[in-house]
Design a protein that fits this description.
heterodimer, A: 6 helices, B: alpha/beta, seven-stranded mixed sheet, 7 strands
């Protein structure tokens, strides 16, 4: 009886063991994270690297995914281990926010400068049109009269 | 209008000057690898067994600094030999420091347990210590004398190869002799 019970327990462990090791409902995937994490030795993202260090990090990520860790959790653990440089993009908080906002501010400022420039340029041209052609000085006027006289 | 124009030009000039300054600063502050006879760059790092460790805290003792990583094949080759050398020289006051470079901590622990490494291991996950030492790869080994100066030869491979095993012996001796 005891032997039969032990056999059932062993069989259950053999069947359930691998299943327990793998998360039934993973919260993220390796392919999702690969493009967001840098290989620390080759300075490309993991999806573009087969360096040993990159491979070990991929194994770590897969291991954590199998334990049902979320993408945020895995990223945080990698930052703790490797520093913020392991992330391919800066975070959306604190000083790193500057990296996201500065380009937008730069584009808006550039567009503003361009708009003001175009506006001022167009106003100058309108002003020129209102003014008409510049007045001729006496010498030019005399030459023009002479030329016109020749044509007559 | 003229004031606005001058202000705009001044701001643009300041921005360009700032960027230029940043570029110059980056170029002039690049870490240079330590030279033999020069001071060993100091560092403070987390120890694998908890707490932090500063190289300056072992000033007065000969130090062997070995950069390694669990994903590095040659590091596996030399791990047992390094442990052997540590056991050989620890009685003479030589400090061995293993610096785990760009490595997941869990892998590092497994590596150390597998190879029976017992000397102090420091974590350099971000690679900043390696950068300060001008690391070109792993494993690499430096020797620091009692005065905090780099001595011997900068070992650029596993100490188990004939070329580097002699250099290792000379390096430890140079650190001891200072």
């Amino acid at each position: 009886m005891i032997l039969r019970f032990a056999a059932v327990v062993v069989a259950a462990l053999v069947v359930a063991g691998p299943a327990a090791a793998t998360c039934a409902h993973p919260k993220t995937s390796l392919s999702y994270l690969e493009g967001q994490i840098m290989c620390p030795t080759c300075h490309t993202t993991l999806d573009q690297s087969d360096a040993p260090a990159a491979q070990r990090i991929k194994v770590f990520i897969q291991h954590r995914i199998d334990q049902c860790a979320s993408a945020d959790q895995i990223r945080a653990e990698l930052v703790t281990n490797f520093g913020a440089g392991i992330l391919a993009a800066p975070t959306h908080k604190g000083f790193d926010l500057l990296a996201w906002w500065l380009p937008i501010v730069g584009v808006i400022a550039g567009a503003g400068v361009l708009a003001v420039g175009v506006w001022r340029w167009s106003r100058t041209r309108d002003g020129d049109a209102d003014r008409g052609p510049p007045d001729l000085d006496a010498a030019d006027e005399q030459r023009l009269d002479e030329l016109l006289a020749k044509l007559d | 209008m003229r004031v606005a124009k001058l202000t705009g030009q001044a701001v643009a000039l300041a921005a360009v000057a700032g960027l230029l300054g940043l570029l110059v600063w980056r170029l002039t502050h690049r870490p240079k690898p330590p030279t033999i006879g020069g001071p060993a760059p100091n560092f403070v790092a987390k120890s694998l067994d908890g707490g932090s460790f500063s190289l300056a805290s072992v000033r007065g003792k000969p130090v062997v600094i070995n950069f390694w990583a669990s994903w590095c094949g040659p590091c596996k080759t030399e791990a047992a030999e390094l442990e052997k050398q540590w056991q050989r020289f620890r009685g003479k006051g030589v400090v061995f420091l293993g610096i785990d470079y760009n490595d997941p901590t869990g892998d590092a622990r497994r590596f150390l347990a597998h190879h029976g490494v017992t000397y102090r291991t420091l974590l350099d996950g971000s690679g900043s210590i390696g950068d300060r030492y001008g690391l070109t790869g792993v494993p690499e080994t430096y020797f620091v004398d009692r005065n905090g100066r780099i001595v011997g030869e900068h070992i650029l491979g596993p100490i188990t190869t004939p070329r580097w095993s002699d250099a290792f012996a000379r390096g430890v001796q140079a650190a001891l002799d200072s």
